[in-house]
Amino acid sequence: MGSLPAAANWTGRASTAGADPGNLSAALAAGAAPGATEAEWLHLLVQAGNLSASSSALGLPAASPAPSQPRANLTNQFVQPSWRIALWSLAYGVVVAVAVFGNLIVIWIILAHKRMRTVTNYFLVNLAFSDASMAAFNTLVNFIYALHSEWYFGANYCRFQNFFPITAVFASIYSMTAIAVDRYMAIIDPLKPRLSATATKIVIGSIWILAFLLAFPQCLYSKIKVMPGRTLCYVQWPEGPKQHFTYHIIVIVLVYCFPLLVMGVTYTIVGITLWGGEIPGDTCDKYHEQLKAKRKVVKMMIIVVVTFAICWLPYHIYFILTAIYQQLNRWKYIQQVYLASFWLAMSSTMYNPIIYCCLNKRFRAGFKRAFRWCPFIEVSSYDELELKTTRFHPTRQSSLYTVTRMESVTVVFEPSDPDNSKASRKKRATPRDPSFSGCSRRNSKSASTTSSFINSPYTSVEEYS
């Protein structure tokens, strides 16, 4: 991300790994002949793709003349055999293909079908867009930079490459956080109005604005340095590596630790509420239908969040350890460790469409429609019906009388009664929704007292299934 090593090292730290900056600088400034000192310096530039250290941190003053000729006799300990490069290329190519096409299909499923346009799904659109964008614009470029230790893409793309990944990951994780908070409000306090379409757009816009602000320093301080035989893209902070490390820690807290903490708390409370207890005795079929639907949505989102957390954890650990123990950057297999941790982090962008397809019947129907041209994909009439306009329309309560949710008892005051201050007549109304026929009368009291947990005037089962 950001300036991930090879192209995106958030910290942009110095990678001297025990070398003496003063000696390196003096040797290079004196135009030293090719030897151990310069060879070590060039090795340090390519170790694990960690190329974002500033020239001063590497011991190369801005005015120091570089060697006049490329050193062809220098060896690179991170050059990989062709078979390994082919395997890594295949692994990264699969991530990009699945992430881009899978998330674009998710966006199409939601925006092209009215039934899918819910608050949760609008946040899923934002999540899918940020994942697809990062996979398309960041993953392969970083992989190429990590593999070749050479920046081929120019100064403008260097700035974009250091800026956009942090923006996209911030948008992704806070879209998940917004979904968690929305689920919490819908289940724990269902009588409050849900977010409107306008409010949802404002929240999404605010997420992107904050993401831009967090990533802006990466764009501001991005540099490229053209050297004999090599071009580097890195982030040169005014106060050096310590400022880089501080920024790195801030980013980890804001795009990993804090949102995961919020989601952990909200989903724990929601999980206890949904799975922690049942209403004693018989309850209506509609109650069980909505409870089951809510559980499915929450379970799907918990899997999405856990997948994100697992995929990004090794990546963050890698940078923290290599920043503290810089000698690790010279380890023989450090490039393989980086490529593996970076692949796992980037693979988080491709799992969500698979999770949606496996755990949600409407997304599954949408994927079937998208791939109906395949000979082994069959779209049934039930799949077509799943994406049609909402079939369930909650009946509005009349303003002339009040109906309790579960018992459906109407209290009617007769103005013509001579003693209407003391007497009133209760009439049992016929349920207006057929699903109420499954309710037990003997448990109507308990069902009624808990009905606000399941139903609210602002939601229906369509919102959750």
Protein model, in words:
- This protein is mostly helical.
- It has two domains: 82-229 and 236-370, Rhopdopsin 7-helix transmembrane proteins; 401-463, no CATH class.
- The chain contains 13 helices and four strands.
- The protein has helices at residues 21-29, 36-46, 82-111, 119-148, 154-188, 197-220, 241-275, 285-324, 334-359, 361-370, 381-386, 444-449, 451-454; strands spanning 222-227, 230-235, 409-412, 425-428.
- Strand 1 (222-227) and strand 2 form a beta hairpin.
The stretches of 5 or more residues where confidence is low (pLDDT under 50) are 2-75, 391-414, 420-438, 440-465
Q: Which radius of gyration do the C-alpha atoms yield?
A: 29 Å
What is the CATH third-level topology name of the largest domain? Rhopdopsin 7-helix transmembrane proteins
Ends apart, CA distance between termini:
35 Å
H and E order: HHHHHHEEHHHHHEEHH
Helix/strand/pairing class, anyone? mainly alpha
Mean residue pLDDT: 73
Helix content: 55-70%
CATH architecture of the largest domain: Up-down Bundle
**Structure annotation, total helices:** 13
How do the strands line up in the largest sheet? Answer: 1-2
Largest sheet: 2 strands, antiparallel
Portion of residues in beta strands equals under 5%
Shape: globular
GO biological process, one term: positive regulation of flagellated sperm motility
Subcellular location: Cell membrane
Organism: Puma concolor (Mountain lion)
Keywords: Cell membrane, Disulfide bond, G-protein coupled receptor, Glycoprotein, Lipoprotein, Membrane, Palmitate, Receptor, Transducer, Transmembrane, Transmembrane helix
